[in-house]
Amino acid sequence: MQQKDMDFPRILISALRGGAGKTILSIGITAAWKKLGKNVAPFKKGPDYIDAGWLSLAAGRPCHNLDTFLIETKHILQSFLFHSSQGDIAVIEGNRGLYDGIDIQGSTSTAELAKLLHAPVVLCIDCTKSTRTMAAAVLGCMQFDPGVDIKGVILNRVAGPRHEKILRQSIEHHCNIRVLGAVPKLGKQNFPERHMGLVPTQEHAWAQESIDAAAQIATNYLDLDALAEIAGQAPNLGSEGIHYPASPLKRVLRCAPTGNQHSALRIGVIKDSAFQFYYPENIEALVDAGAKTVFISPLTSETIPPVDALYIGGGFPETHAEQLSDNVTFKAQLKSLAQDGLPIYAECGGLMYLGEELVLDEKSYPMAGVLPVVFGFSKKPQGHGYTIVVVKEKNPYFEVGAELKGHEFHYSRVLQWRGAAKDLVFGMKRGTGFIDNKDGVRYKNVLATYTHLHALGSPAWAESIVRNAISYKNKIAGAIL
Fold first, then answer.
1. Domain co-membership, 351 together with 466
2. Which of 34, 223, 423, 458 qualifies as a cystine partner to 453, CB 3.0-4.6 A?
3. How far is CA 245 from CA 3, 82, 88, 266, 431, in A?
4. Is 141 noted as a catalytic residue in this protein?
5. pTM for the model
6. Which of 63, 141, 175, 348 is catalytic?
7. How many domains does one find in the chain?
């Protein structure tokens, strides 16, 4: 598929730093526009799952991640074009400060993404105990890189009418830029923070109430018409030479769909409030590679339905440790399937669930016991940021020598490890990993890791899971015959 003119209204919400309020404003703008009848396509810059989950809930559709560290820029662009084409307007939430990246050149920054997508930028600024200085900060951002199209400012945490007036006049006079809204300091916090970003939406029943509250904030304090006008002024994305199929994932998957003979291929995905961190592209990649996904929860079911492979994502199993521990039947079946050779791929929270125990506040909670490891927890992150792993040992999923880019974020740590060195298949080129600068615990057809991978950046991931699922399915069929 190719289009000569790609006119996608879009706006990117950024800030001077993390914690300035851009997430709540992005959620509010998305939800408010949805209430007005707009079909909003949400995107999140960065590897974050939690903010993306809130944006997805606000828009009523999946939020796709645009991370230029994990994913090649051409695939970022293809994904944005494809998913934006299915909406009326796109809202992109940046991460950290506008120009913050992994080096002094600003690589992987929100600013670089804005330039790639030719997206107008609106800066959310925390105005606490500041007035005219905010004009200097905004002007500095505008002049720091003229290639970044900063179109407006939203004032956040404004103390009152006088404070707002001074801020608005200072910014509009010195920066010649529009102030698109002023949000006061709010007495009630509808979005409590925990770990990185916001709490997962699955963790509380009042999620929709929070979305409605954010929409009301946007409606009351922001100029939604002006924001839509700015989004509509985004230039057409030049499309010469850019082709994208029904799904951008099909451009990176090397394997063909499994075909009719494997049409019943089933990959289980453990997804609930304990295990909720999944990129939508990862689930889509498994489907595009020919599998049917079956969602399973050890919180609500005692058994695992017939599947040919299992994917256990990240999350917070520690918040459900007692319930997970008490589901003895599910754990026993999972361990038996692993011993039988079922392909299982697990990330972070899934890694912890496959271990022997979680130790919380000096109390031990038995887990599935597939891997010989005991996990504890710390008050500070034990691994946080982008990772680069090099495949050092043979395993069912990745070729030795391959280099994979991902990210990690975990408070858990290894208390006891009774495996062998050869059972750790990844060497850490960047990041913390599991233990001793290694990651990727292998047992038979199980591979569990702290590193999260994105399907668009690591196409071998989905391909290998499907390939292993087919082999396992054929083995079981042969045993029956």
1. yes
2. 458
3. 11, 8, 20, 25, 34
4. no
5. 0.90
6. 348
7. 2
